[in-house]
Amino acid sequence: MSGPALHLAVEIDGDGAHPAAWRRAAHSPDQLLTPRRVAGVAAVAENAGFTLVTLDDGVLPPGVSPDPVGRIGAVERAAFIAASTSTIGIAPVVPVTYAEPFHVSSQLASLDHISLGRAGWVVTEEDHPEAARAWGRSVVADADARARESRDGVEVVRALWDSWEDDAVIRSVATSRYLDRERLHYIDFTGETYAVKGPAIVPRPPQGQLVVLGRPDLVPAAQLDVALVAGRDLAAVTTAAAAAGTPRVFAEVEVALDTPEASGAERVADLQRHATWTDRGRLRHIGSAYQLVALLGELSSSVNGVRLHPLVLDEDLPVLSSLVLPALSERRLVARPLPGTSLRSTLGLERPANRFAAAAAAAAAQEDAR
């Protein structure tokens, strides 16, 4: 399953994976929501050679612990990062349990245009009843119903990305034509809770289809480009990866690394005095950078990439940048994204043909054969 390189993604929402991470952050709490903060973290990740950054999100405040934090919307942060970076992929989390897929499609297509083809989408679901009230929607309390919402949402978003063919935009001054209306298409989707006709209001993304990441137990594998798989040990991750059924598979790994000031275990113990680090069923590494390099080397035989969730960004990201990625590079286990390369291309994914153009070509070929 593994390709020529292990792709590394890093989650950069807030101050880290631990709910009390802000207590060990290198900045004052009032700096968390500033543009300089998110741009700085993204720049560190890009300079280190990460393939991708992800940005968690949700309509509700993140967490109900004694350490509440705020956040700016993931798509808005992603757009800001896109303008200040040049090679790293950017994938915001956008739930589709209550959000309108038409608007999600427009936002993400715009992000791909802004980033020149470096955008992705992490699909999740909203499982808190309070989220429904925030959207003014009825609660989707049943897990199967939420899964259907996610399935339908991804289906609509993907169809809308194809509702403009690649050459639909003309921009001809001589003929005063901006669009070829024959190359815009209605998707005519009718689901259980909504109907969407289209076409989109944003031209087809540069990648054709953004890279879609998600858990294969929540979203059908056929709708995903990258499965995010979890497991508390290597055997569980390997089993989940083998069953994913997607073009690429990333393992979810939480990390608390030894730093010059304190060991990973000491840092975890310090934060646990304030809040509990929730067990999400993910592989968790607490220890040295050398041990993490060894772990990632083992994972490279069963997955195409790893999404890291650092305990505290300001403490773990420098160790990842100075010790882990250079060591992996020396072993030729990772490759730095190249300038001018789309996220799909970096991950070795083909740019998909437009479904409507492909159908028209197939119909024409059948007509010629008669």
UniProtKB/TrEMBL annotation:
Keywords: Flavoprotein, FMN, Monooxygenase, Oxidoreductase. InterPro entries: Diverse_substr_monoxygenases, Luciferase-like_dom, Luciferase-like_sf. SUPFAM superfamilies: Bacterial luciferase-like (SSF51679). Gene3D superfamilies: Luciferase-like domain. Pfam families: Bac_luciferase (PF00296). It comes from the Bacteria. Residues 28-219 form the Luciferase-like domain. GO terms for molecular function: monooxygenase activity; oxidoreductase activity, acting on paired donors, with incorporation or reduction of molecular oxygen. This is LLM class flavin-dependent oxidoreductase. It comes from Streptomyces himalayensis subsp. himalayensis. The lineage of its organism: Bacteria, Bacillati, Actinomycetota, Actinomycetes, Kitasatosporales.
